[in-house]
From TrEMBL:
SUPFAM superfamilies (UniProt xref): CV3147-like
Organism field: Sphingosinicella xenopeptidilytica
Domain S-Me-THD N-terminal: start-end pairs: 8-164
Pfam families for this protein: S-Me-THD_C, S-Me-THD_N
Cleavable signal peptide: none
Name of the protein in question: DUF917 domain-containing protein
Annotated S-Me-THD-like C-terminal domain residues: 167-360
Entry-linked InterPro entries: S-Me-THD-like_C, S-Me-THD_C_sf, S-Me-THD_N, S-Me-THD_N_sf
Transmembrane segments: none
Domain of life assignment: Bacteria
Gene3D superfamilies according to UniProt: CV3147-like (2.40.390.10), CV3147-like domain (3.40.1610.10)
Amino acid sequence: MFKVDSLQDIQDMARGAVLLGTGGGGDPYIGELFVRAQIAEGHYPTVVSCDEIPDDAFVVSIAGIGAPSVIVEHLVSEKTLRVLLEQAVAYYGRKIDAFISAEIGGANSMFPLALSALSGIPVLDADGIGRAVPQLEMTTFSIFGVRATPALLIDDSGNVVKVEAVSDRMAEDLCRVNTMAMGSMAFTAIYPMSSADARRVAVQRTISQTLEIGRAIREGRESAGDVFDTLLECLSNRDGRTARILFDGKISDVVHETRDSWHWGQVTIAALNGSDDVCTIEIRNEYLVARVNGKTVTIVPDLIAILDRESAEPLTAEMLTYGQRVKVLGYAADPLLRLPQSLEVLAPRQFGIDEDFSPIEELG
């Protein structure tokens, strides 16, 4: 167990969450500001491992849902978070013992921490995917048997929608339609489960990983060495997962579109070494596939991150603009995401990409 009682730590965690968000999940900066304000007032989020609470503890996922380009424009409302908690306790008919992130990437890493600071309820050091994904049923929770519903949606105007669906895929459709009616931004209490369930189905130690990543980038900047070497060492030390720089260049073209509560786009990066090499990355909320000169070099569910070339600051998809000098990083997904039953939900074809999954270590 640890308390997030340092402004530096929450800033590092937000930075790490952007990298794990693979371009999506929304910019955590707004959530970071909220948590920093709570810390300044002496209200600290608490993070615990799944082993530190009883098996029958009641756990609920807290998340934002909607288009990242819209989420970034919303301040986090203390009133909305408190109402969400009150409504969830009444709806589920029992006290909530812990929160868990639906996805660790981007803003959704911050929302459970924000509610933890307000309520004193701890956050599990785990999440439902180890990255960000565009659809709510694309989680290890759902893949390994924990249902998304019953769930609640709430917006800042006080509208509340209760969702009970026959499948998690239908839950995604129902939540997406209602979120669009709410202005493409809502908060949700979803995936009710026990602590024993969370231990079985969640990707573990991801909250602490955001801190490790953010701290590595910051300390790499402050050292005399190469910040990217420090970052790659940090990533590779996590269960020996492959991490490498895929491309170094300047953004020569980028297309953004908000459609059906998703952020769609494509970014083209030209090499800086005088060659004609080009990297293209397809976006649907997250970076889904990176290709160099037409050859796939990393593909979902493995992670792709775009980072500022000088500072290694991770960039969300909405931050990308013409002329930015960047490096593209590929990072192997948690082994849980590569299991056959996971690939039935997370393979590239499930995102509309006409190719099969190949691990980053095999793409070379």
